[in-house]
Every structure is written in C-alpha cells, then in structure tokens.
Amino acid sequence: MVLAFLSCAAFSAFCGGKKDKPSVKTEPKVEETVAPVIQEEEKVPEVQVPDLTLNFKGLDLSTGMDVDQKEFAPAKLTLVNIWGTFCQPCLVELPDLEKLSKKVMWQRVQVVGILCDVFDTSFKGELDLAKKIIREKNVSYRNFIIAKNTPWLRNIQAVPTSYIVDSKGKVVAGPIIGSRSADEYKALIDEALEKLKK
Prior knowledge:
Blueprint: H1 2-12, E1 57-60, E2 66-68, E3 77-83, H2 88-104, E4 109-115, H3 124-136, E5 142-146, E6 161-166, E7 171-177, H4 182-197
Parallel strand pairs: 3-4, 4-5
Antiparallel strand pairs: 1-2, 1-5, 3-6, 6-7
Helix pairs in contact: 2-4
C-alpha cells in the first residue's frame, strides 16, 4: 500500500488539475481546477506522448485474465482513461465515462480504464477498493491493471489523464488532462474519427 502511494505521489497532488495550455482544447470545469496556476512567462513543460503499442501487458480487473495491445484491435478508437482510487475527480467522472461507453459503442469506439495506483494483484487493499468503486459506480466498461514501468504510466502529470488511440494503440488525441463530461469526450472522439477518414 505504501508503494502504491509513493508511486502515484508525483501526480496525486495534481489530481484532476488542468494546465492553462492543455493539449486538447476544451474548457476546464472550474471546481476541478486544482493545479497551480502557470504564469504567462513560465514555460509549460512539453508532455511526451508515449508509444502505447509497446509493452502493454496487464490484467483485466474484473476477470483477472491477461490483456495486451490486442485489446485495441476490435475498435476503431479507444478512449483510455488513467485514473486512481485516491482521486476524487476521477471517481466523479466514472458515471460519465460509463454513459459515454454506451453512447459510442455503435461507432466501434470503446472506453477502457487503467488504474495508476494498482500494478498487480499483490496490491490487495487498493485492488479491492478499485473493484468496490467500479461496482458502486455501475461501471461496465473494462478496467485494467498494468505494470508501472509501461509507457502508459510514464510522464503522467495528473489524473485523470486520457488518450484516444487507434486500433494499434497509436495516440490520435491527448493527453486529455482532467475530467470531462460524456458530451465533451464524445466531441473529442467524433473529431478523432473524422481524422481517421482523411
């Protein structure tokens, strides 16, 4: 449990925060803006977009079965939401992500979650808490736990952080830092689908 806390400590302080210059242009929700204000003269650090097609291995939280990058193949796009059990804005947006998953299913788009504070089944307390949260929030889309050294969890500056990836796991939009409504996520997905047509 201490290890999980320390692993996420770097971005738990910015949980749900937004940058003044986010990668995806959508207005932040005022009540969720908790990151320090970046002054105009300060340089915003460049966010590295990971290659999410590499080393993606983990477990499905509900079934315990192994998962890898093939999980992206059936869908045109996947919204990957990286969240933590300690992060209140993450928990608040789970019902919106559930609503979104049902809304975009017909477009061959899926939603998956990745936990940032549970890396394997030895994290018993956090694992049980995550399962309880998912059950209580009526989340039916899949959630994964993956090793902390995979590209998905590197350079995460805040949670929730989301990416929209194609069927090979290549990032087409993101990082999307901070929580969003189902409609806001839907607009970003529609935009990404249009890019795929070009």
